[in-house]
Amino acid sequence: MSLRYLTAGETHGPQLTAIIEGLPSNLTLDFEELNFQLQRRQKGHGRGRRMQIEKDTANIVGGVRHGKTTGAPVALVVENNDWKHWTKVMNIEPIEGNDETKRRVHRPRPGHADLNGGLKYNLKDLRNVLERSSARETAARVAVGAVARQFLAEFGIKVAGQVIRIGEIEAPKNNLPIDELIARTEESSVRVVDKETEEKMTAYIDQIKQEGDSIGGIVECIIEGAPIGLGSHVQWDRKLDARIAQAVVSINAFKGVEIGIGFEAAKIRGSEVHDEILYTSEKGYHRATNRLGGFEGGMTNGEAIVVRGVMKPIPTLYKPLRSVDIDTKEEFTAQVERSDSCAVPAASVVLEHVVAWEVARAFLEKFGGDSIEEIHANLKNYNEQLENY
Predict the structure, then answer these.
(1) CATH number of 4-387
(2) What sign does the dihedral 59-65-67-69 (CA atoms) show?
(3) Kind and range of the H or E element at 363?
(4) In this structure, are residues 357 and 368 in contact, taking their beta carbons and an 8 Å threshold?
(5) In whole angstroms, what is the distance from residue 137 CA to residue 143 CA?
(6) Angle of helix 138-153 relative to helix 344-366, nearest 10 degrees?
(7) Mean pLDDT of 237-241
(8) In this predicted structure, what is the pLDDT of residue 108?
(9) Where are the domains of the chain?
């Protein structure tokens, strides 16, 4: 069975829509948990005024009956509360008026999709680009990932995330149990476990905002409980770590990804990189360390999946950069749209959900079935096979 989704909708449109195809039947969905994950995305020190307007909730309008999936496509809707202020500008019907009335955008912002999208699709109103390329679309992706997260939880797989760095401030390393990591990062406005680091980061973000600038950082996702053998070595596009890497870099403003120790592996010797294989009757095959982040040969090896993503600073600045007007070809300083000074804590939540989706997709490919009961039976048989290996 293949698991996939599509999203549709604009940042100032009436709603975001997502359709998930390939979910098995009889998966119990916790709607409060689904909306809790959406609310997590809106939190974090450094967020802009948009988060005060939108209180995201997902309405399921297809594929679920009496709290359980039916096997049909699941349709999710996240309404935009700000739509009432944009009904005329974003209406699907033609409107009369000048550029100001239509809120036409003809001055592309550096670092955004504005100019490239306008050139590619021959659009003279760059709003048609920025409305869809906005990070607002990640609300739909978190909603989709939240469903995947509940699917994984059905099989004892847990998902956590944390902020590793914001600008020049790095959080100290920790080896907390995953449940404690989840609890402590949820209490932090910047999703770190260390209170001193939190205070430094929040003060730093405030300074950046006061200077009219923005700042990026590094975020990490950890998934525990994934079985050995998700993904495959036999084709490049079946390697799960590669698919996760694509998903991570597809998040708005993400420009890099690491698995395990990542780029640090270039600085040290092989004996300090690779994870020795051990065997005990209690744990079966396992690794002495987890420097490779739970992957070997494009497949999970039973250790925790560890993925980091690098987020660049948001390009919408209150001290704008230079650009060129597409009408006059004259230079100007880029216009400012409502934005965040730092969205790294929120990006940590988005990272969790895109990684969870890819792991769920690989899990369903490995243990595919049309119902939750069938998948449980397939997993049980596989675990027995591993025990006898």
Answers:
(1) 3.60.150.10
(2) negative
(3) helix 344-366
(4) no
(5) 10
(6) 50
(7) 97
(8) 93
(9) 4-387
Could you tell me the maximum CA-CA distance found in the chain, to the nearest angstrom? 75
Q: Answer whether 239's CB lies under 8 Å from 185's CB.
A: no
Nearest residue to 224 (alpha-carbon basis) of 172, 270, 180, 273? 180
Cα angle: 141, vertex 316, 217; to 5 degrees: 65
Which of the four pLDDT bands, split at 50, 70 and 90, describes residue 317? confident
Token pair of 261, please? 């120790």
DSSP-derived pairing of the beta strands 331-333 and 322-324: antiparallel
Q: Which amino acid is at 309?
A: G
The single-letter code of the amino acid at 150 is Q
pTM: 0.95
Report the length, in residues, of the chain: 389
d(CA 94, CA 112): 26
Q: Return the number of other C-beta atoms located less than 10 Å from residue 171's C-beta.
A: 24
Q: Which two tokens stand for residue 383?
A: 């675990």
* SS3 (DSSP) at 135: helix
At 333-381, the pLDDT tens digits run: 865 655 678 999 999 999 999 999 999 999 999 999 999 999 999 999 9
Q: Strand (E) positions, the chain?
A: 4-8, 15-21, 58-62, 64-65, 68-69, 74-79, 158-166, 169-170, 217-224, 254-259, 277-280, 284-287, 295-296, 299-300, 305-311, 322-324, 331-333
* CA–CA dist 347, 138 (Å, integer): 9
Q: Exposed/middle/buried for 25, CB within 10 Å: 0-12, 13-18, 19+?
A: middle
| Higher per-residue confidence, 152 vs 101 | 152
| Distance from C-alpha of 151 to C-alpha of 146, rounded to nearest angstrom | 9
Residues 298, 358 contacting (CB under 8 angstroms): no
Quick check: 49 and 209 in contact, CB under 8 A? no
Q: What is the dihedral of CA 269, 259, 313, 135, to 10 degrees?
A: 170
| Cβ neighbours of residue 117 closer than 8 Å, sequence gap 6 or more | 123, 126, 128, 129, 130, 133
